[in-house]
Design a protein that fits this description.
Number of helices: 4
Strand content: 25-35%
CATH topology of the largest domain: UDP N-Acetylglucosamine Acyltransferase, domain 1
Structural class: alpha/beta
Shape: elongated
Radius of gyration: 20 Å
CATH superfamily of the largest domain: Hexapeptide repeat proteins
CATH class of the largest domain: Mainly Beta
Distance between the termini: 54 Å
Number of domains: 2
Oligomer: single chain
Length: 257
């Protein structure tokens, strides 16, 4: 049976695995489902339809599942879905979706630091880090292994590419290319995220190939269409390069340069 502090309020309609721990003064509402191994600290709020996977930790003051900060929202039933092995730090907030997609989704193995905000209909994939006070608008996608530095606002509908890193105090208003390192106001691409790729055991030839592609796209003095064509002519089209080209060609907001 779940270990629930006497001061916590847990709805009888909530579903908690037998080994879940709920700390003092936390509130778990009707629509919550919490998986095995989860630890919910004090003063945490789970509101609305919230599904949390296994082995997650929610630290004091975290708020998950409250209504979206969207004036179009009219009380529709939407949800937040969170995967396994996530850490949600103090006072982070995750709003549920709108009718646009119906849900806000956080994948597996993510670290969401204190005061970060994940807005409605966002998609956080796996193994990301959102540092302190990252502020996300709606409909944002953060791809696998991306890192976003603290105090960074992100415009709605932007995508943060796989294995990229965003410096703290940046301002993201366009898509962040995969494998890139970006920073500043205005935010610019400063090259390939070589440190991150090396730490994740990317082979040297893959890194070298991506570096050639980056040089053409971001240093070649070409427009985007010309640069993508040049990469296809001059660079080995490995899966990583193909992913980069596909991400850029499908960008709706445009990419940071």
């Amino acid at each position: 049976m779940a270990e629930i502090h006497p001061s916590a309020i847990v709805s009888p309609k909530a579903e908690l695995a037998d080994d879940v721990v709920v700390g003092p003064f936390s509130i778990i509402g009707d629509g919550a489902t919490v998986g095995s191994g989860c630890q919910i600290a004090n003063n945490v709020l789970l509101d609305g339809k919230v599904t949390i996977g296994k082995d997650c930790k929610l630290l004091p003051g975290a708020v998950v599942g409250t209504i979206p900060q969207d004036l179009k929202y009219k009380g529709e039933e939407t949800e937040v879905v969170i995967g396994d092995n996530n850490i949600i730090r103090e006072y982070a907030t995750i709003n549920r979706g709108t009718t646009a997609s119906g849900r806000t989704v956080v994948g597996n193995g993510n670290l969401i630091m204190a005061y970060a905000h994940i807005a409605h209909d966002c998609r956080i994939r796996d193994n990301t880090i959102l540092a302190n006070a990252v502020t996300m608008a709606g409909h944002i996608v953060v791809e696998d292994f991306a890192i976003v530095g603290g105090l960074t606002p992100i415009h709605q509908f932007c995508r943060i590419g796989i294995h990229s890193i965003v410096g703290g105090l940046s301002r993201i208003n366009k898509d962040v290319p995969p494998y890139s390192k970006v920073a500043g106001i205005p935010t610019k691409v400063y090259g390939l995220n070589i440190v991150g790729l090396t730490r994740r055991n990317f082979p040297k030839d893959v890194i070298a190939n991506l570096k050639r592609a980056f040089r053409i796209i971001f240093r070649g003095g070409l427009n985007t269409t010309q640069a993508l064509a040049r990469v296809r002519e001059e660079v080995d089209l490995t899966p990583e390069v193909e992913y980069l080209l596909d991400f850029i060609s499908k960008s709706e907001r445009g990419i940071l340069k």
